[in-house]
């Protein structure tokens, strides 16, 4: 594929208004240049093996900047992406970082957040204003983790899975206003954990 053009699924990436003359090749080279720079390490003097939330890591822990992962994911990612790394290699933290960067605020803000004054201000991704303009706080994000589920019994694990799905529905309950009437009942049933239907819970996270 020519380096002058982005992958077919990512042509939106070149529409940033503040860089109208920037070709895909130039953007790719800018991204690659960031990979060659020395790593940025934010050291707050504390490191917790049990912590995986990006916000806590970057403000109170020791964090090695992997923010270019966000660009790589948005530019080159596919519909489904599998990240295979051993435990404690930062998979959960990277997903938390991805959510924090992309997820839009609700209710919507009446202004455009400034990336340089955010949690990402000192990280490499902040250097790419064209990328931030297209993606920072611009996407609805569904993020659910099944980490540390109770494993004492199947019933306990199933109960915790339902609880996490219900909490996720609570976070996005603004969707009720735009759902068709025939879907609202099911949404509320999952939100309030008022259903025992296997099919409804099985489809609760369907795309």
From TrEMBL:
Domain AAA-ATPase-like intervals: 53-174
One Pfam family, short name: AAA-ATPase_like
Origin: domain of life: Eukaryota
PANTHER family the UniProt entry points to: AAA-ATPASE-LIKE DOMAIN-CONTAINING PROTEIN (PTHR34825:SF1), CONSERVED PROTEIN, WITH A WEAK D-GALACTARATE DEHYDRATASE/ALTRONATE HYDROLASE DOMAIN (PTHR34825)
Protein name per Swiss-Prot or TrEMBL: AAA-ATPase-like domain-containing protein
């Amino acid at each position: 594929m020519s380096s002058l053009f982005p992958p077919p699924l990512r042509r939106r990436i070149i529409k940033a208004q503040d860089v109208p003359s920037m070709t895909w090749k130039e953007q790719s080279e800018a991204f690659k240049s960031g990979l060659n720079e020395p790593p940025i390490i934010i050291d707050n003097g504390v490191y917790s093996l049990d912590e995986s939330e990006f916000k806590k890591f970057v403000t109170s822990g020791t964090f090695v900047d992997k923010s270019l992962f966000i660009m790589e994911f948005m530019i080159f990612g596919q519909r489904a992406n599998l990240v295979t790394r051993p435990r404690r290699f930062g998979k959960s933290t990277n997903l938390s970082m991805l959510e924090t960067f992309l997820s839009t605020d609700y209710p919507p803000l009446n202004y455009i957040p400034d990336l340089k004054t955010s949690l990402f201000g000192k990280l490499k991704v902040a250097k790419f204003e064209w990328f931030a303009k297209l993606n920072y706080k611009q996407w609805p994000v569904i993020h659910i983790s099944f980490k540390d589920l109770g494993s004492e019994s199947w019933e306990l694990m199933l109960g915790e899975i339902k609880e996490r799905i219900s909490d996720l529905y609570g976070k996005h309950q603004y969707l009720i206003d735009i759902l068709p009437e025939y879907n609202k009942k099911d949404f509320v049933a999952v939100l309030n954990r008022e259903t025992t239907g296997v099919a409804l819970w099985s489809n609760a996270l369907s795309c």
